[in-house]
Structure formats: structure tokens, C-alpha cells
Design a protein that fits this description.
- By secondary structure, this protein is of the alpha+beta class.
- It is 28% helix and 25% strand.
- The strands form ten sheets. Strands 3-7-1-14-11-12-13 form a seven-stranded mixed sheet, sandwiched between helices. The protein has a five-stranded mixed sheet with strand order 9-17-16-15-10. A four-stranded mixed sheet has the order 20-30-31-34, sandwiched between helices.
- The radius of gyration is 28 Å and the shape is globular.
- The structure holds cytidine-5'-diphosphate.
- The site of cytidine-5'-diphosphate has 24 residues, from α14, α15 and α17.
- Cytidine-5'-diphosphate binds next to α14, α15 and α17.
């Protein structure tokens, strides 16, 4: 007699199954791009610009060509003869592959050398003579917007100044009217500084063009292999079926591995020209100064308030510094990403957001670093404004949020910017967080400590963020709609192969995807092999970023399992000799409704699909599914941080961190907790120590890991995590919402709000991140706000 399976025992939904990929990762057996060695492989190094803005008057590569072991030197001029000096970006702009006319940021790619080994290639790069004629440098968008600012993108026809876009959303007039009725207007100006995703593994590629088959294979560090295939097909004018992109193991992406980089293009061209595999592996400084930076947005925000704490309207003006090329991947319709997801979790009748983006002499910026297209900035601005507004009202921080949070009955809730929030229990999460942190007690301790000159502070950040782009009506990148896919093949012994269009970079897809199959089909997760990242085998997908894997690819997995189950049901009916309508399903088995003891397992159905199918039925048990989500999923989180600030030094220590995350149904609670801990660590780093900026000449300050600090377990505070509140997404087939980036998105404001709370009474409204001791100390002693915007040269 067959029996229903125990879901947890087979590693299904809700099981804290150990990560299968860690078997190879913790034994040093991962297969990263740099681990791949192909016969006859050559190595490429890039010569980068030492200056931020200069005209190139001469490039002499003759000495480099003479070095033994050098096979090819690529310059912009040579690229131009093949129409490859410039390439399209994912945001409808163009980007120089190798500079021809000018360099526009420090670290820009000027030339490449391909040689027998990377050391020869590096030496040869240094032998290339380049004459630069310096130009005035623009390091922040205010300077870029000035009437007399040099035009950075003079390569573009009709580009008069440095403005890339002006974009607005919301109801400007309605917002004005609400402000006219306000009892109080609270205003806050701040800068979310540039930060860098800095994955442990830098970017790299191995291009392998095979002249005899005309097929190009590229192993590369990309989070979106199918998008890269499309881009290569368009840029290199190669037919798509002759391009194979393989993303092997990826050592962290965090958005940094979404854009197309010149190194990829040059290694491809070099392989085509030399007919040998060409490997390019970036070094750490190359990665830090030239590849996708994040953030760098200025906010001027205002909130219209009623005396009782009700928010009547919000008005926001943001200015984004994109660097020299607008190269980040944003959904095409939304120039500043999903910045307008801000204030979604609060019941606010009307709002308006005006955004503008500018070019500066910095590396391209604005990538979604562990972030769903600018939601990190959106939620940071939101929660910093909430903090300032509660203080302006003289209202308790928690109470102010409680008064304005969307209540359970209001779902689905339409935000003032038009998003539809799917579900949530925001009040319950806040209450749980307050209880866990001992809110009232802490407020008392804080008052007591003050009397002794000690500065304690508490910071709250509550937010709901949109995860899982599409739907395809509204979300596309370069016109390619944002959906995702899964393909499932059940072998005759009941073991299975699952492939998706996503590409994990350490999130644990190989573990959790098997759990969805176990949940839907009763095939133990250990019997499912998960493959991603090879465009020749995986179904088309938009890749993994913006925590979209679970909401979109995860849904596609559930849907393909259901298609397979539907066929297995027909096989079961055949085996049990009853009609399909008489068959019931429970985990792992079909049985006859009127005789529950008579059943067949999914494994028996799989065998029958190859050995005993009914007449007329197509053999085999496999299918695929493309999933176009009807809506985004909206997880909710409440982060509460307590700190003590030393008034003598400005050093601040974290006392406690409480995180309450409602990401709907958790596939693997252990992995979810790991994601939250990772996100909180990054949030702590951003707010406390991570400093990468530019001097007035556009030199990148913090371009190495001695200056740009990655927190280790030593510096990272402990976390108290809560997952008791679970509100399934009503439109996701398994009720799951994304979670990977929530803590990195919502966390920073909790840390900063805590320090600002400790500084209460000083009149200081803002210190820009990172809250380095000298900045905090300056704020305490000078009693003024401290800006982190890069300084502008004033001596002409
Ligand atoms: O797109 P990305 O994989 O970065 O983010 P995600 O979809 O939020 O998933 C991160 C990891 O958490 C994956 O291994 C998911 O399967 C897992 N997860 C989960 O177990 N339960 C959820 N409700 C959401 C994510």
C-alpha cells in the first residue's frame, strides 16, 4: 500500500535542508570562471585611464607589440574599424568599449593586451604610451548641472549638457493641495553615497571562438546569461544560435554582474581574431573602480503632516549620479528604477516624485546592488524621512509608524504611485519587533543614560519592497519582457532534472528549487538535479537579480511541476484502471477516491511514462513553463537597532538588532535566515564603515580593500531574527515572496536612525553614510549636519 510522504523528510517546503551546493563550495571544489583552463588559452589584461577626464591625443602601442609573448594589442581605434568602439548599454545609452576620443572616468578601459600569460599582458599594458590632455572634472551632479559645466558626453549628438533624464511620477497638483492643508511640513535633505557591491569573485570571461563550427562559447561571470547572449548577438552581429553563454559558479554578484563590461567584449573580439580562447580576469582594484557602482542619489524630501501624526502627502526630488555612461539595468519604463515604490507600506493619499539623472566623470553607477532597481535608496529615504517627521511632530517613532502603516483590511492596497501591494500584516510585524527589542524598557534606559552623559539610541525601519519583476506589460529591459522559466524532466526511475532561466550566485537555488519540486510532486529534493546558467541547455530567462528568482523562476518551477503532475495523473488513471476524474493526489501518490488504499507513487507513474503508457499518449514525463507574474510580491520587514554613541570619539557600537521578516511562505527557513543575516551585514557595513568616494580630481578614494572595508564575523554584530508572521502572496503559486535583499534594503535606515536618535537634542538632522566616527563627532561637537557628497574643486 502506498502512503503520502512526509514533506519535511523528503526536503520539501519548510524544510531547513542543508545547502547542496556547499558540498563543493566549502571543499574548494567550486568551478568558477577562473578555474577553467582551455587548451591554447591566451590571457587578456586591460590598460585603464589614470585620469578622470582627458582628451586622448596619442596612443603608441608599438613597444607593447614588441614584447615576446604578446599576440594582440587592441585599442579604441582598432575597435572602431569593426564598429565596436562603442556598445549599447542596458539603459538605451552607449558606452565606450575602449576609449577613442576622451577618457571620462578614472579606470576607464583604454587598451587591451592579449598574451601568453597575464603577467606578460600586464607588462605590455604598461609599455603602451598614451598622451592625455586634461579636461575639467565633474564629480557630483550639482556641478554637472551648472550652466558652465563641461559636457562629458560630447560624443552624443544633441547632448547639450549633462542631464540624462528628467522623470516624474505621481500627482503634483494633488500633492501641492495636500501640502497647503498641512499642519506641519517636515523636510529632509540627504545623500545616499556611492557604494560598491564588491563580490568576492571579480568579473571575468573566457571567450572561445571555434572557426570550424563558427560557434562562440563564452564562460563568464554574468547573472543574466540569456541577456548577454542577446547583447552579443546584437553587438557582434553573430547569429544567436551560434553563441553559447555559460555562467559557471559565481562568487557573489549583488547586481555587479548584470551589466555588459568592455572586458567581455574585448575578450570575445580577441578570440575571434586570434581563433584561440582568451581569458580575462579582472583584479580587485579594476573591479572596484570600473564596474557597476550603486546608489549615489541625492534626496530633497518633504512630508505634509497633520498634528495627530497622519501623513497627508509626500514630495520627493531625487538627483542621481550615473557616472559617465547610463549603463545600469533599469526596467525601460522607469528611469530611476522602482524609486517610486517608496512609502508603499504607509497609507498616504497622494505623492509626487521628480527624478533627474546626470552624467559625471565617474565609473557607471546605479546598479541594483542587492536591490530591486533603486528600492534601497527608496526605502532609505522613506525611513529617514519617517524618523525626521516623527521628531518634528514630537511623536514616538513607533506610534508614528503605527498610525500610518497600511492595515490588514486594506489589502490589496494601491500606493500613491500606483503599485498594488499584494498582502501583509504590517502592524503585527512592528508589534513583534518592538516586543522583541523591549522598546519601552529601552526608552527608559535611554533617558537614564542621558542623565549620566551616555548617548543611547534606537532606530526603526519598516518597509515593504517590490520583488519579482515583471509583469511583462510594465517591465522590460531593452524591450525584452521580464518573465522567467523552468524545464523539468522526470527520468523513468523518478529522479529529475530541473533547469531554470535564473542564475544563482550563492543564494542556494540548487537546494531550494529541489524543495519546490518535492512539494509539488513528492519527488525527494535529493533526487532532483538543478542546473542553471548555460544558454544551450537552460530555458530562456532574465536571470537573477532584484530578488526575482523565487517570485518568478520559483513560480515557473511550481507551474511546470503542475503540468508534469497533470500528465502523471493520466498515467495513474491508466495504471489504476479508473477514469482520471476518480483520481486524488496527496504528496507523492495518486489514489482512487473511493478506495484510498489503491494508489500509485509518482515514481511508478514516471516508469509508466517510458514503459507502460496508454495507447495514444506521448511517451516521457517532462515539460516547461514560462511564468509572467501578475504582480510583484511585497514582503514586509521591520528592523530595529539599538546603539550607544561615544560622545568623545563619535564611535558607535551596536547593542541589539531585531529583524522581523514576513516573506510569505518560506521554502527553506535556514536559507531565508542566511539571506537576512547577509543583508543585515551589508546594511551594517554601508552605514558604519564602507567608504568609497572621489576627490575633486575624480580620483577614486577607497579603491582597495584596505580602504573599502568588508566586515568580517569579528566586526559584525549578532542578530535576533523573527519569522513568525507569514502572509502568503495571494498570486504566487506557492505563496512565497522574495527575500534575498530585504535586509540590505531596509537595514541601513535602522542603523542611521539609531545613531540620529542618540544624537537627539543636538539639532542635527542628518549625517550621510557611512557614519564614520569623525563625521559623528563633528555632528556632536559642531551641532550641524554632515554631508558626504564628494568635494568640488574651488581653485579653478
Ligand atoms: O533572486 P534571488 O535568488 O537573489 O533572491 P530570492 O528569490 O529572494 O531567494 C534567495 C534565496 O532564498 C533562494 O535560495 C530562495 O529559494 C530562498 N527563499 C526561500 O527559501 N523562501 C522564500 N520565501 C524566499 C526565498
Amino acid at each position: 500500500m502506498t502512503q503520502a510522504l512526509d514533506e519535511i523528510k523528503i526536503g520539501g517546503m519548510g524544510a531547513s535542508r542543508k545547502r547542496v551546493e556547499d558540498n563543493r563550495f566549502i571543499r574548494g571544489r567550486g568551478n568558477y570562471t577562473d578555474d577553467i583552463h582551455l587548451p591554447g588559452m591566451l590571457h587578456m589584461e586591460i590598460l585603464r585611464s589614470p585620469v578622470a577626464h582627458a582628451r586622448i591625443t596619442r596612443i603608441d602601442a608599438s613597444k607593447a607589440w614588441e614584447i615576446p609573448g604578446v599576440h594582440l594589442v587592441l585599442t579604441g581605434e582598432m575597435m572602431a574599424t569593426r564598429n565596436l568602439a562603442w556598445m549599447p548599454t542596458l539603459s538605451y545609452d552607449t558606452q565606450a568599449v575602449l576609449a577613442t576620443d576622451k577618457v571620462r572616468f578614472q579606470g576607464q578601459e583604454v587598451a587591451c593586451v592579449i598574451a601568453d600569460d597575464p603577467y606578460i599582458a600586464k607588462d605590455a599594458c604598461e609599455a603602451i604610451d598614451v598622451d592625455y590632455e586634461p579636461l575639467p572634472v565633474v564629480v557630483n551632479p550639482q556641478q554637472a548641472a551648472a550652466a558652465d559645466a563641461p559636457v562629458i558626453r560630447d560624443d552624443k549628438e544633441n547632448q547639450a549638457g549633462n542631464v540624462i533624464y528628467n522623470w516624474e511620477v505621481g500627482d503634483a497638483e494633488g500633492t501641492d493641495r495636500a501640502f497647503a492643508r498641512a499642519d506641519l511640513v517636515s523636510r529632509l535633505q540627504l545623500h545616499y553615497p556611492r557604494s560598491h557591491p564588491s563580490p568576492i569573485e571579480c568579473c571575468g570571461s573566457i571567450a572561445d571562438f571555434n572557426r570550424s563550427t563558427s560557434k562562440l562559447t563564452v564562460y563568464m561571470t554574468t547573472q543574466a546569461p540569456h541577456i548577454i547572449r542577446a547583447a552579443v548577438a546584437l553587438v557582434a552581429e553573430l547569429p544567436e544560435h551560434m553563441i553559447r553563454i555559460i555562467s559557471p559558479d559565481i562568487g557573489g554578484g549583488f547586481g555587479n554582474k548584470v551589466p555588459v563590461y568592455p572586458g567581455y567584449v574585448c575578450s570575445i573580439l580577441a578570440s575571434i581574431l586570434l581563433e584561440r580562447p582568451v581569458k580575462w580576469i579582472e583584479d580587485k582594484t579594476g573591479n572596484l573602480i570600473s564596474t557597476g557602482f550603486a546608489r549615489d542619489v541625492y534626496l530633497d524630501g518633504e512630508m505634509a503632516l497633520r498634528r495627530d501624526g497622519k501623513i497627508l502627502a509626500v514630495r520627493m526630488r531625487t538627483t542621481a549620479d550615473h557616472g559617465a555612461f547610463f549603463a545600469d539595468a533599469q526596467p525601460s519604463k522607469f528611469k530611476i528604477g522602482l524609486m517610486h515604490s517608496t512609502f508603499g507600506c504607509y497609507d498616504i493619499p497622494v505623492a509626487h516624485l521628480a527624478a533627474r539623472g546626470l552624467y559625471t566623470n565617474k565609473a557607471p553607477g546605479g546598479v541594483a546592488y542587492r536591490c530591486s532597481f533603486r528600492v534601497t535608496e527608496a526605502m532609505f529615504f522613506q525611513e529617514r524621512m519617517m524618523h525626521a517627521a516623527a521628531n518634528d511632530l514630537g511623536m514616538d517613532q513607533a506610534e508614528f509608524r503605527r498610525v500610518n502603516l497600511v492595515s490588514d483590511e486594506q489589502f490589496p492596497h494601491r500606493t500613491p504611485f500606483g503599485f498594488l501591494l499584494d498582502s501583509g500584516q504590517y502592524g503585527a510585524c512592528l508589534d513583534l519587533g518592538l516586543k522583541a527589542v523591549g522598546y519601552e524598557d529601552f526608552l527608559r534606559q535611554k533617558e537614564e543614560a542621558r542623565k549620566n552623559g551616555r548617548l543611547l539610541g534606537i532606530g526603526i525601519s519598516t518597509m515593504s519592497e517590490p520583488l519579482g519583476a515583471g509583469n511583462s506589460r510594465e517591465y522590460d529591459i531593452l524591450g525584452i519582457k521580464m518573465f522567467d522559466s523552468a524545464e523539468l524532466r522526470v527520468h523513468m526511475t523518478g529522479k529529475a532534472l530541473l533547469r531554470t532561466g535564473a542564475r544563482g550566485q550563492g543564494q542556494g537555488h540548487e537546494t531550494t528549487w529541489g524543495q519546490i519540486v518535492a512539494h509539488e510532486l513528492g519527488i525527494p529534493a535529493d533526487d532532483v538535479t538543478v542546473e542553471e546558467g548555460d544558454t544551450d541547455t537552460a530555458p530562456f530567462g532574465m536571470g537573477t537579480y532584484a530578488s526575482r528568482s523565487t517570485p518568478v523562476a520559483g513560480a515557473a518551477i511550481a507551474m511546470v511541476c503542475r503540468k508534469v503532475r497533470a500528465k502523471a495523473r493520466r498515467l495513474a488513471a491508466h495504471l489504476l484502471e479508473v477514469s482520471e476524474e476518480d483520481i486524488e493526489w496527496e504528496l507523492g501518490r495518486f489514489y482512487v477516491r473511493s478506495a484510498p488504499d489503491r494508489g500509485v507513487t509518482i515514481t511508478e507513474c514516471a516508469m509508466a511514462a517510458y514503459s507502460n503508457m496508454p495507447d495514444g499518449m506521448e511517451p516521457g514525463l517532462e515539460n516547461n513553463a514560462y511564468y509572467d507574474p501578475p504582480n510583484l510580491t511585497w514582503p514586509f520587514a521591520c528592523y530595529i537597532v539599538t546603539v550607544e554613541v561615544d560622545p568623545e570619539t563619535g564611535v558607535w557600537d551596536v547593542l541589539n538588532i531585531v529583524a522581523v521578516d514576513d516573506c510569505g511562505v518560506r521554502i527553506n527557513p535556514m536559507i531565508v535566515e542566511g539571506q537576512i543575516m547577509g543583508g543585515l551585514t551589508e546594511a551594517f557595513a554601508m552605514s558604519n564603515m564602507q567608504f568609497i568616494t572621489f576627490d575633486a580630481d575624480g580620483n577614486c578614494v577607497g579603491s582597495n580593500y584596505m580602504d573599502y572595508l568588508i566586515p568580517t564575523a569579528w566586526e559584525t554584530p549578532g542578530f535576533e531574527l523573527h519569522g513568525e508572521v507569514v502572509t502568503p502572496s495571494p498570486h504566487h503559486p506557492i505563496g512565497a515572496k522574495g527575500v534575498g535583499e530585504c535586509a540590505a534594503v531596509g537595514g541601513p535606515a535602522a542603523f542611521v536612525n539609531a545613531v540620529m536618535d542618540a544624537l537627539g537634542g543636538t539639532g542635527v538632522r542628518n549625517i550621510d553614510m557611512p557614519l564614520l566616527p569623525d563625521r559623528v563627532w563633528e555632528a556632536i561637537t559642531e551641532r550641524h549636519d554632515v554631508s558626504g557628497a564628494p568635494p568640488v574643486r574651488t581653485d579653478g
